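Exercise 7. Given the components listed, write out the predicted structure of the assembled complex. Treat all entries as one system.
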Amino acid sequence: MIILYLENCKVTAHQQVNETDYIITLQTDQIARVSEAGQFVQVKVTEGFEPILRRPLSIHTVDREKKEIKLYYQILGKGTEILSKVREEEIINLLGPLGTGFDTALENSKALLIGGGLGQAPLLYLAEELERKKNTVFLALGTRDEVSLRNVVCFDDVCQEVSLATEDGSVGFKGYITDNLPEIIETFKPERIYACGPSPMMKKIKEIAKTYQIPCQLSLETRMACGIGVCLGCTVKPSDQSKPYLKACVDGPVFWAEEVLLDE
Amino acid sequence: MNKVDHSFTIGNVKFNNTVLTASGTYGFGLEFAKIIDVSRLGGIATKGLSLEPKKGNPGERIYETPAGMLNSIGLENPGVDSFKKDYLPEAAKLGTKIIANISGSSLEEYGLMAESLESEKDVAALEVNISCPNVKAGGMAFGTDLKMVEKVTEIVKKNTTKPVIIKLSPNVTNIVDFAQAAQYSGADAVSLINTLMGMAIDINKRKPVLGNVMGGLSGPAVKPVALRMVYQVSQKAKIPVIGMGGISNPRDAIEFLLAGANAIMLGTINFREPQMPLDIIEGIEKYCLDNGFNSVQDLVGLAWKEEKHVKTNRCT
Ligand SMILES: Cc1cc2nc3c(=O)[nH]c(=O)nc-3n(C[C@H](O)[C@H](O)[C@H](O)COP(=O)(O)OP(=O)(O)OC[C@H]3O[C@@H](n4cnc5c(N)ncnc54)[C@H](O)[C@@H]3O)c2cc1C
Ligand SMILES: Cc1cc2nc3c(=O)[nH]c(=O)nc-3n(C[C@H](O)[C@H](O)[C@H](O)COP(=O)(O)O)c2cc1C
Ligand code: FES
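Answer.
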């Protein structure tokens, strides 16, 4: 039986990346020990009832020796706003590690990681795992502007090459990273694609991966209440419509592209 | 371990603890068993079961509201046959009582489900959902029509020897009438409240947020309403009352017991604080010890029992 941990974690660092993005480092004996790339934690951001639900955040990276995990998040609404005010030494309650992460059974191969905006959050842990297994890792990252790319240096050690795109053209390719994707694929010739980002981007990547016939994994986001598979609030449509809905929190958040049906 | 007697009884079934978990918020108990010791619970009400498997509603199913949430899951479940075969054997090993929550889209279906579960020794009791507001053809009509509540209760009772708990809808003018209808028709207990119908609108899309338009409100926001209903129903009911709706800490739970609930169920809070059922058990134990009660049942209804006492004194 997989065991989930409900842990009180001390904040050991809380760093602001840019106006809206933060990286929080948390001390956790258990979650750091057992988590896998692509999994997430449910964060209790307040003792009050506003908001009442926990917030799902991907595990950005893990330091098993220091027993620490990092979360990379953006202030979007009240939950993440409250989280951003938490100071070092304070305690936060986490539930995790949750969900089915990336398939990292890949060795001596070439992997393309594609992140859109905050989609870069779970990719660092993945890149580290893939690099450890002697894969060549290529990162393609698309964001709105230059400031959203400030964390990209973290990837330098584990990625052979990094390709950037910004919507405003301030850095790298001007436009969406998906517009540049065929070229990246033709140059790098990846044997596996992993992607995380907004839904229109996931849909596009699914199509491109299909065209090039490259096995592709997508990390999807839905609204979640429980995060453990009981509330049935986090549905994802299966490709086979005769099957029951998939649950993003346990069957995912990472799915094989052909498993899921993505809407606009 | 406990110095206080936490047990209570419905029909001929004795539950070891007054703290249970609510249908639709606990699956079949298997997930939470990875986090806490669920054997300490009085029981687990299963996800609402239907005769046939149900896919549930498309589109957004949950939406957070101030101190609460809306849901329109649409009764997604594997169906009663799969429950018996694939889930019940595992759930039975959890060491707590399993209450099968059933939901029909016709009177006959309620009867068939009760019959189908009759031979399952691991099902301790049936909780009959007559109030699920999510399924267009089902729930609502039964739970808001007194005659239908009587008929559903009768047909379930006719097809089972297990204790039957009728789960009442709060979306009615006078919930006491519905509790009495259930009791009159042979219910062994009533549980209340199911979710309150509500909705939310996305002002950017200018459309309802939930795929099903309307959904059920739960969580701390509904607690005062639920508590009031338990207070009213328990004064009239001669059968046990299970109270729920927004219970989020030991204090809330004790309020429900004092309002007249013989036991309580926890729903939405499990999503946030998986350990809360156990904290509540401990909180009730401590309250009883601190205040000289040997049994949790001694607390039940004290809020109105005292009041009646005072009133009589004044009148005479
Ligand atoms: C498995 C998973 C992993 C995630 N990992 C990360 C991560 O690593 N970093 C990160 O920054 N974010 C991540 N997210 C998203 C993050 O959970 C949300 O941004 C956060 O819950 C927003 O909370 P809030 O209280 O700040 O905003 P809210 O006040 O809840 O919402 C603000 C606005 O965003 C909308 N919204 C919020 N959540 C969602 C959603 N899930 N789907 C659609 N609309 C939504 C709301 O409707 C509202 O308009 C992840 C989500 C999931 C499901
Ligand atoms: C996500 C969700 C699903 C639910 N599903 C069911 C169900 O299938 N059958 C049922 O009788 N009640 C269902 N309920 C209602 C709860 O059992 C309970 O009556 C209600 O949520 C009030 O309690 P709470 O405020 O503690 O959550 C559901 C509630 C939620 C939040
Ligand atoms: S978030 Fe509750 S089932 Fe996935």
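Discussion: Chain A has a mean pLDDT of 93. The pocket of FE2/S2 (inorganic) cluster (ligand 3) is lined by residues A 224-227, 229-234, 247-249 (CB under 6 Å).
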